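Tokens for chain A. Residues wanted.
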């Protein structure tokens, strides 16, 4: 039943989408401080792994130490034993991006030392170096890349090695105090020069994940949703705001609809990690796409009517209201072709979603050789209410018929009173169309998502002109 499924997906989109065709956003996303905190936890784990890869090269040199003169030294086999980032904070830098500050970090190393002095005396041993009070501060710039996806980079970075404590093992103990000052300086410099490049690398490692944003999310063989960013992210003191196109297109034929997104703003909420506003534009762009493709139609046959119903879709039943049908076409089954006359229109009001649709219903008698003989064409204006919910990383919905207004368009069997059969068509829609539509609406349509992102603790509220989704997120690793 492919035609019907197309119509169902359209209605589902009516249950949660926006209006777009220029640079205005059809879908808006707000990342709150709570969301940044979750990102900090993931980022710190990545940075910790990066810092564990610090490679300190062998260090050698010569120092003039009184009273023994020149002392040649070398530090070899230096390796990281442990790294800790116990304290970190994340914040927002308006107009730029995200600030990350790490304090009281520590790095523990071990290695071997060797010295030679007085031209022929040498000594050697091992050492442990504990670096504490390490601080790192970095600003992460958030921008849009050429594909309309978010992109991050290190805008600036500063690292400061705090206190160091060296424990020597082996060798002559009287050398330790002489030796500790220049081994401390050498290792401090080697560490400090590597920290910011490793921080920058950890930040860059986020970009492959950001590139998984579904900027073109396929819905079916006819349509896809574009979620590319229409402008660079807006960074305020409390959130990162993304404007996404949120527009449906025919696959392979991106034609703009004759309407544009209506500007809207997300409320100042911060109890969830992420807020998403999906405006009426997306739903209405879906209607335009599917109507243009000519697939918003459904054929209703008698086997779609519950067997318990006294009403049957045949010329006998309709003959009770239109006698000429029973006389001209006795004992035949009928079908009803429902097809939109114009693209449906979705409206969001507080706690209410309504879809207005204008359609035609062509009633035909099915001849013994399966050919169809048109009986009459009706014009229908219908109003449908919808309930919307989030399932997984999709939006799904459920429909209820509100009202139907039926008028006669064309009759091929002579004049008749449409009012007498209006209740029949309302019953057909309720028992045959709506249940099938709702089964398909359960499949949902994709929301913008990155990688293996899951939505948890999700709430959905219908606002004026858009649907507001508040949610926490989790990434499966």
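Reply:
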């Amino acid at each position: 039943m492919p035609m019907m499924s197309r119509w169902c997906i359209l209605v589902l989109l009516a249950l949660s989408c926006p209006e777009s065709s220029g640079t205005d956003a059809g879908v808006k996303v707000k990342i709150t401080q709570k969301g940044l905190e979750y990102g900090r936890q993931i980022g710190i784990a990545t940075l910790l792994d990066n810092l564990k890869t610090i490679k300190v090269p062998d260090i050698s040199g010569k120092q003039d130490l009184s009273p023994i003169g020149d002392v040649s030294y070398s530090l070899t086999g230096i390796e990281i034993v442990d790294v800790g980032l116990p304290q970190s904070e994340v914040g927002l830098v308006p107009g730029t991006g995200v600030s990350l500050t790490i304090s009281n970090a520590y790095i523990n190393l071990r290695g071997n030392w060797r010295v030679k002095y007085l031209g022929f005396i040498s000594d050697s041993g091992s050492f442990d170096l504990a670096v504490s009070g390490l601080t790192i501060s970095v600003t992460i710039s958030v921008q849009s890349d050429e594909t309309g996806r978010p992109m991050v980079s290190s805008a600036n970075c500063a690292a400061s090695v705090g206190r160091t404590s060296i424990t020597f093992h082996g060798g002559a103990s009287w050398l330790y105090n002489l030796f500790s000052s220049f081994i401390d300086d050498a290792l401090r410099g080697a560490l400090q020069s590597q920290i910011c490049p490793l921080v920058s690398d950890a930040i860059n490692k986020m970009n492959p994940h950001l590139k998984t944003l579904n900027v073109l999310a396929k819905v079916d063989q006819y349509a896809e949703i574009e979620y590319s960013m229409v402008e660079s992210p807006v960074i305020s003191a409390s959130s990162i705001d993304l404007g996404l196109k949120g527009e449906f297109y025919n696959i392979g034929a991106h034609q703009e609809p004759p309407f544009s997104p209506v500007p809207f703003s997300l409320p100042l909420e911060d109890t969830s990690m992420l807020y998403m506003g999906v405006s009426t534009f997306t739903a209405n762009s879906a209607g335009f796409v599917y109507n243009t493709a000519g697939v918003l139609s459904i054929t209703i046959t008698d086997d779609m009517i519950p067997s318990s119903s006294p009403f049957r879709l045949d010329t006998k039943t309709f003959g009770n209201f239109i006698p000429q049908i029973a006389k001209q076409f006795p004992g035949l089954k009928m079908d009803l072709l429902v097809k939109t006359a114009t693209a449906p229109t979705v409206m969001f009001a507080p706690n209410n979603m309504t879809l207005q649709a204008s359609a035609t219903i062509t009633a035909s008698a099915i001849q013994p050789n399966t050919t169809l003989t048109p009986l009459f064409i009706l014009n229908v204006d219908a109003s449908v209410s919808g309930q919307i919910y989030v399932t997984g990383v999709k939006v799904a919905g459920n429909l209820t018929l509100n009202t139907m207004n039926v008028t006669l368009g064309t009759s091929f069997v002579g004049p008749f009173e449409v009012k007498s059969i209006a209740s029949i068509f309302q019953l057909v829609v309720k028992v045959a169309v709506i249940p099938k539509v709702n089964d398909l609406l359960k499949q949902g349509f994709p929301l913008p998502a990155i990688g293996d992102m899951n939505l948890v603790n999700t709430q959905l509220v219908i606002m004026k002109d858009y649907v507001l989704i508040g949610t926490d997120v989790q990434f499966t690793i």
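Confidence is low (pLDDT under 50) at residues 1-22. The longest helix spans residues 176-204.
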